[in-house]
Design brief:
The chain has 8 helices and 9 strands. It is of the alpha+beta class and 197 residues long. The strands form 3 sheets. Strands 6-7-9-8 form a 4-stranded mixed β-sheet, with helices on one face. A 3-stranded antiparallel β-sheet has the order 1-3-2. The chain has a two-stranded antiparallel sheet with strand order 4-5. A hairpin with a 2-residue loop joins strand 2 and strand 3. The chain is elongated, with a radius of gyration of 22 Å. The protein starts with a helix and ends with a helix. The model is unreliable at 193-197 (pLDDT under 50).
């Protein structure tokens, strides 16, 4: 078996690989990558990042966001979201945004991966999943960037906090929130607690 075929054995459909990962299975990684790019068995996503595309009835499928981000960061602790997620909160947010945000512990800035743009934001605290509590704090953090009526949103967010777990909300606000968000949620959760039946 040739060394190139040995490398091929390790490639999984839809898998995203870093150059140094491919080098583990190759004696001449740059030459092998070049050959696999020529045969379209690999697609270059960004510098040192490659996809072994999965064939579908509609052609080659793009890399899924989670695989792409995990390979880029060399880390599995991240959260992918978008300002569009605010629209599901029922607080009056309705705008649509063409933006993918990645909260993570390593990188900061805008990067294009596989032809798609990602806004990486480095944070010490990265929640495991999107929750309503997290999205409310994230919304207040990013109020200035959201194309909505700020005061109306804050009023609706305040109303929404009464229906959520206030303890969780305060914890996320303190771990993830800006100074303004922490003060806001401290105030509204304290008021809500005092008025709770």
């Amino acid at each position: 078996m040739t060394k190139l075929n040995e490398l091929r054995k390790h490639l999984k459909p839809g898998g995203v690989y870093r150059r140094d990962e491919l080098a583990r299975w190759s004696t001449n990684v740059d030459r092998h990558i070049k050959e696999l790019l020529t045969t379209e068995e690999l697609v270059r996503l960004s510098a040192g990042l490659y996809l072994h595309p999965k064939q579908t009835a509609f052609g080659k499928a793009p890399a899924d966001d989670a695989s792409l981000v995990a390979a880029f960061l060399k880390d599995k602790i991240f959260l992918i979201t978008s300002p569009n997620a605010y629209n599901a909160l029922g607080v009056g947010a309705t705008q649509l945004y063409n933006e993918t945000v990645v909260y993570n512990r390593k990188r900061h800035g805008r990067f294009t991966l596989g032809g798609r743009s990602f806004d990486f934001r480095r944070k010490q605290f990265v929640p495991k999943k999107l929750t309503e509590e997290f999205l409310l704090v994230d919304l207040v953090n990013n109020l200035k960037q959201v194309a909505e009526d700020e005061q109306l949103l804050l009023t609706r967010v305040k109303e929404k906090t009464a229906k959520l777990d206030r303890k969780v909300l305060r914890h996320i606000a303190h771990e993830f929130g800006t100074v303004r968000a922490r003060k806001f949620f401290d105030a509204v959760t304290t008021v809500a607690t005092h008025h709770a039946p």
